[in-house]
Design a protein that fits this description.
5-stranded antiparallel sheet; two-stranded antiparallel sheet; 7 strands; protease; Papain-like_cys_pep_sf; thiol protease
């Protein structure tokens, strides 16, 4: 009887322990969009690019703007490519789109340009690819930000992407 009672007690203790473990909430870190964007920034090969983006992050959008009081997407791309890579670009995004060698999205590398058409068939927006599907751009509503190219809003207006032709 004593042996059976001991076995039953051990069984209940074991079941209690296992049920306590299973009732714990999953404490794995939830990767929010902001955390994923921060990871993409932290993974940049070019620390100069990292500093450039963090320096401009949050600067408001201003059509035709080219300084910290306000900047548009093509101005941001122009300054970034010039200051980080020593490459010259035209001022307008549709003209910038003519300077690239097109690639598929899954072939992009840090610093490649990404073009969109929000207003119809013509290119009217540009961003710069970072890594892991993230890019930086001057958003008309949020200023200079890092976003995910896989978001449906960008997928449906994507036109082309690639490096600047040498």
């Amino acid at each position: 009887m004593k042996c059976t009672l001991t076995k039953i007690t051990i069984l209940f203790l074991l079941l209690g322990f296992l049920s306590a473990c299973s009732s714990r909430k999953n404490t794995a870190t939830v990767r929010t969009p902001a955390a994923k964007a921060a990871e993409a920034m932290a993974s940049l090969k070019s620390k100069d690019l990292y500093r450039f983006i963090t320096d401009w992050s949050g600067v408001k959008y201003k059509l035709g703007g080219l300084d910290k009081s306000g900047i548009d997407c093509s101005g941001f791309a122009l300054l970034l490519e010039r200051d980080i890579y020593g490459l010259e670009l035209p001022r307008r995004s549709r003209d910038q789109a003519e300077t690239i060698k097109s690639k598929n999205l899954d072939q992009l590398k840090e610093g490649d340009l990404i073009f969109f058409s929000f207003g119809g068939s013509e290119v009217d927006h540009v961003g710069i690819y970072l890594n892991d599907d993230y890019f930086v751009h001057a958003s008309t509503t949020r200023g200079v930000v890092v976003d995910n190219i896989k978001l449906p809003a960008y997928q449906k207006v994507f036109v082309k992407a690639g490096p600047i032709k040498n």
